[in-house]
Each structure stands twice: as structure tokens, then as C-alpha cells.
């Protein structure tokens, strides 16, 4: 592969990652017009349109998405190999890592690690992207991703981030005084339930329950559906309904008495958030440093 061809492929990946010629050009250190010309040359060489362009956004075409799926893992391997060669033995890790995570995981479990990590490895920069939908780490242009549960594909390695988690059904004392207390998951059908939607137009997050081997998935109704889980905490504190939230989101409010924990025997702990990254023959020093940092037994939330 000639150097110009590699540069064209790198430019294509950058545009998809940033969703913008302007942002991708700034990242690559070139002008937007020069980047646009580079992409046109690649499309002409391949005789296929790789990007759908509008005045507001840029996204891969079907052909572009297929190319990215095959291309990204290969480029990750190249980057890892080059980083391994360029890294002076004994020198501190350096480089840039892109991490994809659901917002709740980023705020509560990733954020406490960032300051200590950056202070320890000042040569490493981090790009954190929050997204509620599952993202393919490699084809999405990420070095690492965070997901619920330890069930990685064959080409991914999983590292525990949060430990086991628990969902909690909660309501304010004022709401319960006015509308009564549900005693079983089925009772929720008679209550105002506040729901989290995974993404705009996506499905509602399920309210799952389990007790003594019995498992239930309850479809709830209510006056509010949001894609921002932190909003639910505020609304449930105002007495507007019942919410189904992570324990760490409501722990302090239960302790203070502002919220009441409901149906506790129906919400056992489950595997929490894991950090995922692609298996590579040679792992970049910055990536390995971050993974090792996450594995440390004494973390900020310990």
C-alpha cells in the first residue's frame, strides 16, 4: 500500500469518527478543503461513494460502512504495532485513547478514574464519547468500550469495572402517601411509573424482577419517558411517580429518607459494567496502561 492510499483510508476513518469534515480536519491537522479532496480521491479510486453528505452531517454510505467494518480492526493493528515500535523501552506511555460508554457508567464509574489516570500518565489523552446504544468498539473507531455484563465476543477482552450492581424501585414518601405502596411487581400497573428510553425512538428500558427463581419483565405506564437517566432521579424526588434506577443513583436519597426503596426482595444484584477492548497481537502502551489502571484493586469507588 502506498503512503497516499494509507493517508486516504486514515482520512476516511477520521471523518466517520468525528461526523464532520471540519472536526476531522482539525484532528488530522489539515484544512477541510484538503480533507474533502482526499476523500474524493479515495472514492474515485474505489469507484464508489463512501460518505453521505448533507449540510449538517456526514455519515458512511452502505459501501462506506462495509469498508469501515473491515478497515478499522486492521488500522488498530497497525497503530498498535507502530506504537510498540515508537515507544522507547522504559518511556512512559503516550498517545490518544477513544472510549465509548453509556452515560451512567461514564459519570459514576469512569469519571472517578480519569483524574488519577491522567495525573499518572500525562502523555496519554482521552476522548470519552457517551452513547446509550451498543457500539462495536473496533468498527466505531474506539479503543475501548463499556457495557453491562461480561459476555464479550470472541475478539474482545473484558475487564470488570463496577462490580455487581442492583436496580432499585423507588418513590418519595409523599407519592406513597397519596397513591399507596406496591407490594408486588404486578402492582406497578396501577402506578405512575417514570421510564428510561435507551435512545430517541428506541425501546423503553425493561423493569426486570427476580425472586426465588421466578423472573418477571414488567411493562409499565406513566407520564414520563426520558433518554437521560439522571432526570428520573430528580423527578422521582419531586413525588411525580415511581422509578427504576441503579442503586448508586439513589443510595444517598434512601439513606436521607427522601426516597423509599420498594420491592427490595425482587431486585437481586447482577453483573455490572465491564471495560471491553479488542484482542490484538500487540497492545499499544497507552491502552495497556489504562487497562492495568482499571484492574487496580483500590479504585475511587472502593
UniProtKB/TrEMBL annotation:
This is LysR family transcriptional regulator. One of its GO terms (molecular function) is DNA-binding transcription factor activity. Keywords: DNA-binding, Transcription, Transcription regulation. InterPro entries: LysR-type_TF_proteobact-type, LysR_HTH_N, LysR_subst-bd, WH-like_DNA-bd_sf, WH_DNA-bd_sf. Pfam families: HTH_1, LysR_substrate. The keyword DNA-binding applies. GO terms for biological process: DNA-templated transcription. Residues 1-61 form the HTH lysR-type domain. Belongs to the LysR transcriptional regulatory family.
Amino acid at each position: 500500500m502506498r503512503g497516499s492510499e494509507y493517508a486516504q483510508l486514515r482520512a476516511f476513518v477520521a471523518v466517520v469518527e468525528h461526523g464532520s469534515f471540519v472536526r476531522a480536519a482539525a484532528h488530522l491537522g489539515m484544512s477541510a478543503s484538503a480533507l474533502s479532496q482526499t476523500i474524493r480521491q479515495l472514492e474515485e479510486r474505489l469507484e464508489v461513494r463512501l460518505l453521505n453528505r448533507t449540510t449538517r452531517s456526514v455519515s458512511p454510505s452502505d459501501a462506506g460502512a462495509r469498508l469501515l467494518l473491515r478497515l478499522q480492526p486492521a488500522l488498530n493493528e497497525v497503530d498498535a504495532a507502530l506504537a510498540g515500535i515508537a515507544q522507547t523501552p522504559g518511556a512512559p506511555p503516550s498517545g490518544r485513547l477513544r472510549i465509548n460508554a453509556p452515560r451512567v457508567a461514564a459519570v459514576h464509574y469512569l469519571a472517578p478514574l480519569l483524574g488519577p489516570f491522567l495525573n499518572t500518565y500525562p502523555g496519554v489523552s482521552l476522548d470519552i464519547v457517551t452513547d446509550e446504544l451498543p457500539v462495536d468498539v473496533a468498527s466505531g473507531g474506539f479503543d475501548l468500550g463499556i457495557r453491562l455484563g461480561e459476555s464479550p465476543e470472541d475478539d474482545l477482552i473484558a475487564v470488570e469495572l463496577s462490580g455487581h450492581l442492583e436496580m432499585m424501585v423507588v418513590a418519595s414518601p409523599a407519592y406513597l402517601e397519596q397513591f399507596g405502596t406496591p407490594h408486588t411487581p404486578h402492582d406497578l400497573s396501577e402506578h405512575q411509573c417514570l421510564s428510561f428510553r435507551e435512545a430517541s425512538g428506541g425501546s423503553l428500558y425493561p423493569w426486570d424482577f427476580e425472586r426465588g427463581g421466578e423472573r418477571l419483565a414488567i411493562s409499565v405506564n406513566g407520564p414520563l419517558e426520558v433518554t437521560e437517566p439522571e432526570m428520573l432521579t430528580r423527578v422521582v424526588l419531586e413525588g411525580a411517580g415511581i422509578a427504576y434506577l441503579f442503586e448508586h443513583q439513589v443510595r444517598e436519597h434512601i439513606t436521607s429518607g427522601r426516597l423509599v426503596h420498594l420491592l427490595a426482595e425482587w431486585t437481586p444484584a447482577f453483573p455490572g459494567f465491564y471495560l471491553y477492548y479488542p484482542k490484538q497481537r500487540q497492545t499499544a502502551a497507552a491502552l495497556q496502561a489504562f487497562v492495568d489502571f482499571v484492574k487496580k484493586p483500590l479504585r475511587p469507588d472502593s
